TrEMBL record, chain A:
Entry GO terms, CC: membrane
InterPro entries per the UniProt record, alphabetical: ALO_C (IPR007173), FAD-bd_PCMH (IPR016166), FAD-bd_PCMH-like_sf (IPR036318), FAD-bd_PCMH_sub2 (IPR016169), FAD-linked_Oxase-like_C (IPR016164), FAD_lactone_oxidase-like (IPR010031), Oxid_FAD_bind_N (IPR006094)
One Pfam match: ALO
Name the record gives this protein: FAD-binding oxidoreductase
PROSITE patterns: FAD_PCMH
Gene Ontology molecular function: any one: FAD binding
Provenance organism: Peribacillus asahii
From TrEMBL, chain B:
Lineage: superkingdom: Bacteria
Name of protein: Uncharacterized protein
Length: 489, 174
């Protein structure tokens, strides 16, 4: 004991203690350091923080009666309401100037799980993670969700999101029943054969036709898959994908295209999840792992040039290392997201997604090669990830991005925040959208709207009837947001 | 002359540190994101203070050793915290550095202070003065914590300068 006390009195020992503590603290400094959302004093933003706006108030939603009263009152008094889930949409979809924001996050109960019927009924502010936690012990899993589980049910259905599943169609199709609150304050129970077509406008309706209160979703087995990975040339992808779609043994699929200078748009990694027919009830949901290392590697890649080549190679090592491994369906639907956080001051990283018909992929990639700089190391506008997903034809929603079977190219773009830099990014993305439109493609609406109104109209020819229905169903414009103003006004 | 700085400066420093503490905490809370990190930053401060204390003791307790630089260094830390608008990206790391430096300097200062003749008088006076100042401040609308931090930092730097000049005079007189 005496020895320890003596030891602790040594200045160098205390110095080492401080050093060790400092390392511990550094390791625990969160990666996410940005502030966005409603925590901003008086100003609301969403994920990118690009469109700050003053709002009147935020209502933390906890029950439907309170919600109904707010909507009815807004209707009478001519007030505006926006609906917010976890605010990962990036174009001001969740708030409006001087409007009321419904923060749905607290409205998140799992109401019922029916193991036999394979359904879950859940309130719309719950995240996919909440649902996964509830259904995994029953050996069940979601049919369609994004590759990450960090979004709310209401938010994802309102953008009709998509992910890695290639078998269950659009997310909207997995909804069996739904309770909604209409702009006039009526609570409606909707089923799949809804004659008034509320589902058509609420699903994929960007919160403009009412509040989704709860939904009953179809589930499937939490099957165990084996992962198969491969590096292929971009020009071989189309035929590869057709084989994947024909092979009913493959449940999920996605791919990644190189944006590294050495292999720019020439190489791809493909990742397939093959069925094993084994249902899993015991494997727990995976937590985020290796976040710091992944973020470090990604940040290096973000610098472009040789470092991006290195990052692409690092991905090869990773992709090889998971080849042959097994994973449960639920775990394949909850990939890491924290490592993606972009925290460089004065710059922003935004998502964009372009959809193109499956059979136009090869020609489209050729055109992209002409449009984008192969080495963007010295450019302000940097592309440093393109993931490819399959999005099946959508007949259910009123603004469908998948008018036929499409491939979605999810791109991560980084650019500066000076006026000139934003203008340049806008020009680049508009050019990219033009190329996409030439091939009969569309672009995704939950992201920052760099696109022009004309590009929107061309991508979503149904916008007129969307607007007409909006006027009929919500004549006092109770539900609005910045996205609505940008495209529909 | 020597007595004057021994009488007042350590009192200004101890009182000032307690008075400034709430403002510093507001800043630290802002940059530390989670309670765990906030608490750990304090733990780091504490360990660093123990280190500083012991460091003073191990130097053979030379009465005036380094104390002027301690004041200036503390002052600079407060000025950095209060004045510079650092991007959020770096703030937690800066907070960690300031906790280590401030902790070390405070430990060193405390060890030195206990050796001064006026220490026990200061201990009582400091409690009283802090109480009175805090009541006074509670009636003031907080302009911005950064202003208080910067002002206190500047006062500390002035104290350090004063010590240097006094030390110099003292030597000359000898
Ligand atoms: C890192 C990242 C990865 C992404 N990956 C994918 C992906 O893989 N696939 C994909 O399809 N999308 C993806 N997205 C887009 C994202 O899925 C959508 O933005 C989704 O809407 C996010 O859910 P949220 O809870 O954050 O919704 P929010 O952004 O909060 O809301 C989205 C829209 O839904 C409306 N809304 C929210 N709750 C309700 C409700 N209860 N009733 C009615 N309307 C409501 C809002 O008004 C808004 O218009 C990604 C976004 C990010 C930032």
């Amino acid at each position: 004991m005496k020895g320890i006390t003596k030891f602790m009195k040594k200045p160098w020992f205390l110095g080492i203690l401080v050093f060790a503590m400092a390392i511990l603290v550094i390791w625990n400094i969160p990666i996410e350091k940005r502030k966005y959302g409603f925590s901003q004093s008086g100003l609301a933003t969403d994920y990118t923080g690009l469109l700050p706006e003053r709002i009147e108030k935020v209502v933390n939603v906890h029950n439907r009666n309170e919600l109904q009263r707010i909507v009815q009152e807004a209707n009478k008094k001519g007030k505006h309401i926006s609906i917010a889930g976890l605010q990962h949409s990036q174009g001001g979809h969740t708030y409006y100037k001087d409007g009321i924001v419904l923060d749905m996050r607290g409205f998140n109960r799992i109401v019922e799980i029916n193991k036999q019927a394979k359904i879950v009924r859940v309130e719309s502010g719950a995240s996919w993670e909440d649902v996964q936690e509830a259904v995994t012990p029953y050996g069940l899993a979601l049919q369609v969700t994004q590759s990450q589980s960090i979004f709310t049910i209401g938010g994802s259905l309102s953008v009709n999101a998509h992910g890695r599943d290639i078998r269950f169609g659009p997310m909207a199709e997995t909804v069996r029943e739904m309770t909604v609150l209409t702009p006039t304050g009526e609570i409606k129970q909707l089923t799949r054969d809804d004659t008034e077509e509320w589902t058509t406008y609420i699903l994929g309706g960007y919160g403009l036709f009412g509040v989704i209160l709860d939904v009953t979703l179809n589930l499937t087995e939490n099957e165990v898959y084996t992962i198969h990975t491969k590096k292929i040339e971009t020009e071989k992808y189309e035929s590869y994908l057709h084989r994947v779609l024909e092979n009913q043994n493959i449940a999920m699929h996605y791919a990644r295209i190189s944006v590294a200078p050495g292999t720019f748009l020439d190489e791809m990694y493909v990742i397939d999840y093959n069925k094993t027919k084994k249902q899993d009830k015991t494997t727990s949901l995976k937590e985020e792992e290796g976040v710091r290392v992944s973020k470090f590697a990604l940040d290096l890649g973000r610098k472009g040039g040789k470092l991006e080549d290195l990052f692409w190679e690092a991905q090869r090592l990773y992709i090889n290392s998971i080849d042959g491994k097994t994973i449960t369906r639920n775990n394949a639907m909850r990939s890491e997201s924290t490592f993606m956080e972009f925290t460089t001051p004065g710059r922003v990283e935004v998502l964009q997604e372009f959809f193109i018909p499956v059979d136009s992929y090869e020609e489209y990639m050729q055109s992209l090669k002409d449009l984008l700089p192969h080495n963007d190391q010295d450019e302000d506008f940097k592309v440093h990830n393109i993931t490819v997903r399959y999005a099946a034809k959508d007949n259910m929603t009123s603004l469908p991005y998948a008018k036929e079977d499409m491939l979605g190219l999810v791109i991560l773009v980084q650019h500066g925040l000076k006026e000139k830099e934003i203008a340049h990014a806008k020009t680049m993305i508009q050019k990219w959208t033009d190329v996409t439109l030439q091939y009969g493609g569309t672009y995704y609406l939950p992201y920052y709207p760099y696109q022009t109104k004309e590009q929107f109209k061309e991508s979503y020819p149904n916008w007129k009837s969307f607007k007409k229905q909006k006027a009929e169903r919500d004549p006092n414009e109770v539900f609005v947001n910045l996205f609505y103003d940008h495209y529909m006004k | 002359m020597q007595n004057k700085s021994e009488r007042y400066i350590p009192l200004i420093v101890t009182v000032g540190q307690v008075v400034i503490f709430p403002y510093y905490i507001v800043w630290l809370k802002e940059v530390s994101f989670s309670y765990t990190l906030f608490a750990w930053l304090f733990a780091t401060f504490s360990f660093a203070a123990a280190w500083g204390y012991r460091f003073f003791q191990s130097r053979g307790e030379k009465p005036r050793s380094l104390i002027a630089s301690v004041y200036v260094a503390m002052g600079v830390v407060y000025i950095v915290v209060g004045y510079w608008k650092l991007p959020i990206e770096y703030l937690p790391y800066v907070a960690l550095m300031t906790q280590i430096i401030l902790g070390f300097l405070q430990g060193y200062f405390r060890a030195w202070h206990t050796k001064q003749r006026s220490y026990h008088v200061h201990a009582i006076n400091h409690y009283l003065i802090v109480g009175v100042i805090m009541i006074g401040l509670s009636f003031m609308k907080v302009v911005s914590p950064s202003i208080f931090l910067t002002v206190f930092g500047t006062i500390l730097c002035m104290c350090g300068m004063w010590e240097v000049v006094r030390g110099f005079d003292f030597k000359m007189m000898k």
